[in-house]
Amino acid sequence: MNKIFFQPSLLGKIVAGCIWAVLLSFIYKNILKVNPRAPIEIYYFFLYGHLDLSSIQYIYPVIFWIFPHAFLLFIIANVISHELYDMSCYIFTRSRRRTAWVFRMLMVFAAWTTAYYLVQFAVVYGLGIVYGFNPHSSFSEFKSIISIFILNILFSYFMITLIFFISIMKSTILALTSGLTVILLSLFVSRFFYETGLNDFITFLPTSQVIFSWHLIGSKYENYVGYNPALDGFPISFSIIYLLVGCILFSISSIIAIKHKEFL
After folding, report:
1. How far apart are the first and last CA of the chain?
2. Does the pTM exceed 0.85?
């Protein structure tokens, strides 16, 4: 198990994720028009907690928003493929061992996802100080950063458990393709609902759960965004429950599926 937790290749991918965080931070620092001494939570808000509904039709903002999630899915899909198919003859000789393997992989994925975002948030914090953002946060500002952090972890883990289940049922390639399709389709469907005035339906799409700005009503972020990006009746607690329930259901489904999986 330790070999899975601490793979050298994983360290390289996390470093690559940090490089992406640096690049993303630099790009957003140059396009954000905010007070140079603004709270550092504003930096996290734009990097990990906001996507303009009206900008989803453009490729540029969508790519920059989706990349951290997609990159982590590629990492996990590669590990799933190796464990599920390359190592199947050593792992799946008994039903009991299969269930234990699923639990073990789910724990590993949870640890990796947390570490992936923890390192990125630490990098962004350091860069935010360098760029002049105010590092001293009030309780409400710190609470916002933690909320953004938790939503990103839960959403990524939600998607990981989904591709894990599909990988067991079908194949890793199909699972990864399905995961990316769910993310992109959710974004573009939310844009369609927004244009047709069906905002209530947006709150039930998977991708909507991770976008922090869509949960806020009358927030101070309106001064930075230029409008109130929030959707009515969309509390953060709803998204946390939504994502947790999804993770549990996909995890249980994976356990059931692995027991009936036939390996050649």
Report:
1. 24
2. yes
Span 1-31, pLDDT tens digits = 444 444 545 565 566 666 666 666 656 555 5
DSSP 60-117: HHHHHHHHHHHHHHHHHHHHHHIIIIISHHHH-SSHHHHHHHHHHHHHHHHHHHHHHH
The region, left, alpha or beta by phi > 0 then psi within -120 to 50, assigned to residue 100 is alpha
Contacts of 113 (CB under 8 A, 6+ apart): 72, 153, 156, 157, 160
**Number of separate helices (H) and strands (E) present in the chain:** 11, 0
The pLDDT of residue 2 is 42
Q: Where are the beta strands (DSSP E) in 126-263?
A: none
* Angle at which helices 139-169 and 236-259 cross, to 10°: 20
